Amino acid sequence: MGRSNGQPASGSNLPGRLHRHRHRGGWEGVPSTPLLAAQSEAEDEILEAIWLLREQGSDRVPELTQRADWPGDKAPLERLRAAGLIELADDTVKLTPAGEARARAIIRRHRLAERLLADLFEMEEASIEATACQFEHILSPEVTDNVCTLLGHPPHCPHGRPIPRGECCIHYRKDVRPIVLPLTELPAGAQARVVFITPRAYTQIDRLSTLGLVPGSIISLRQKRPAYVLRVGQTDLALDSAIARDIYVRMV
Ligand SMILES: [Zn+2]
Ligand SMILES: [Zn+2]
User: Fold this and answer.
1) Distance, CA 173 to ligand 2 centroid (Å)?
2) Which one of 120, 150, 177, 226 is most buried, by most CB atoms within 10 A?
3) Which residues lie closer than 8 Å to 186 by C-beta, 6 or more apart?
4) How many Cα neighbours within 13 Å face the side chain of 128?
5) CA-to-CA distance for 110 and 71, rounded, in angstroms?
6) Residue 25 confidence (pLDDT)
């Protein structure tokens, strides 16, 4: 999607804070129709902010507009209401079904981009955020599902926040080969590198990490039944499938 306002596209000089987009411009003076790319991005940012606020348990407009990256007035909210994407009542804001669907898709693209950049490109934490912010506006639904499939349909972003499920997570796709997959999908006998372990498994990981099972370690899967047995270094570990499902690996 192009930019119509001539603002620099790079966010590389952004500070490391999460989810800010002041560099984009395009917040003010954008005609309400036709829907320009810049305005659509500005709307995306607000829908995303509403979603993040809700994850923190709040629907309060003042909390939304107190954010450092907020444009400074309520006009953008009025535009979103006019577009049927949000409902405003007193000091609260709620996503309509249409707004919910759009916010969900934005969050999904953002968090999948984070996973992609962290796990496959092994990018530094500081650069991940700015790049993920750009990806969230440009990934098509088709590409998004391909990325999700390549990454083994990860349940969480690297910060441990849930990634909304997509069509691909429900219907198994045969046309894209995953690069990253849960240990349970790895064929017996295969060698793999641990890419990430979901937060749910952290308590087990404490125990397992002392045995060398951490992101980056090379494992070989010796058997899948009756329990998963993998070799890490010189040690054989037996895991039940609930834990094996939370360990994502990449074949080597
Ligand atoms: Zn994240
Ligand atoms: Zn998926």
Assistant:
1) 9
2) 150
3) 192, 221, 249, 251
4) 20
5) 21
6) 36
Give, as one character, the DSSP assignment of residue 24.
Answer: G
pLDDT tens digits along 71-113: 777 888 999 999 999 999 989 999 999 999 999 999 999 999 9
CB-based contact 115:163 (threshold 8 Å): yes
With a cut of 50, list the residues of the chain below it in pLDDT.
Answer: 1-35
Helices (H), the chain: 37-55, 61-65, 75-82, 97-115, 125-138, 141-150, 167-170, 202-209, 241-244
β-strands 235-239, 180-182 pairing: unpaired
| Cβ-Cβ contacts under 8 Å for 22 (sequence gap 6 or more) | 68, 69
Expressed in angstroms and rounded, the spacing between residue 128 Cα and the centre of ligand 1 is 9
Within a 10 A sphere around the Cβ of 135, how many other Cβ atoms?
A: 18
Confidence at residue 135, expressed as pLDDT on a 0 to 100 scale = 86
**Domains observed in the chain:** 1-178 (1.10.10.10), 181-251 (2.30.30.90)
Tokens 């926040």 correspond to: 161
Q: How high is the pLDDT of residue 73? A: 77
Using CB atoms within 10 Å of the CB of residue 73, give its burial: 0 to 12 exposed, 13 to 18 middle, 19+ buried: exposed
Ligand 1 centroid distance, CA of 18 (Å): 8
Strand 191-197 to 218-223 pairing? antiparallel
Please say whether the beta carbons of 93 and 85 come within 8 A: no
Ligand 1 centre from 101 Cα, in Å? Answer: 19
Ligand nearest to the CA of 107: 1
For 113-154, the DSSP string reads HHHIIIIIS---HHHHHHHHHHHHHH--HHHHHHHHHHTT--
pLDDT at 205: 65
